From TrEMBL:
Residues 126-222 form the OmpR/PhoB-type domain. PROSITE patterns: OMPR_PHOB, RESPONSE_REGULATORY. The keyword Transcription applies. GO terms for cellular component: cytosol; protein-DNA complex. Residues 1-117 form the Response regulatory domain. It comes from Candidatus Pullilachnospira stercoravium. Residues 126-222 bind DNA. This is Stage 0 sporulation protein A homolog. One of its GO terms (biological process) is regulation of DNA-templated transcription. One of its GO terms (molecular function) is phosphorelay response regulator activity.
Amino acid sequence: MIYCVEDERNIRELLVYTLTSTGFSAKGLENGEQLFRELTRELPELILLDIMLPGEDGYTILEKLKQMPSARDIPVIMVTAKSAEFDKVKGLDGGADDYITKPFGMMEFISRVKAVLRRRAPQTEDRDLVQGSLRVCVDRHEVTENGRKVELTLKEFELLRYLMENKGIVLTRDQLLTRIWGYDFDGETRTVDVHIRTLRQKLGDAGSFIETVRGVGYRMGDEE
């Protein structure tokens, strides 16, 4: 099930129709109040969330979702007419998995939905990635630093995992955008820098393993 939170009836019905015609189950909701009521009945695979909503806006709703133990891991795609980089970064930093700007083509829309769901599919690997005091348990989706559990968002976890899987290799910002977010953000690489900065802070001393390669990108360096 996919919830489409959109106050404009025509757009809401179009999103639901497009999803159902391509094999998904979808339900249209007008506002945050309806969304949270539905969440008590059924947890969806994905939430499409407009920003400009009556009552609570999309940013406020997103913040509440990420504070709910039952809903915080549900992927969210922000769907909005706001196209400024600030608005995109705000949504992504708030925990959104993707951001699509109106107007958009239906083929692109379905492709983005599938990309997010694919990235959130259960992992089949049963292995740990280890570097010094840093350990990433892939199957349990857990990170520890010197025995301390580190709480990461999905994007932070995927970013760290990808860096560790490619230890010693310089990864450009565009490569990271494509791999972690699923498509090119038209050069808006600031979101990578923001996530790297937050990731380093959360990792504590192990954050120094993530090296900046000036003018190129980042790599997981050797243990000190």
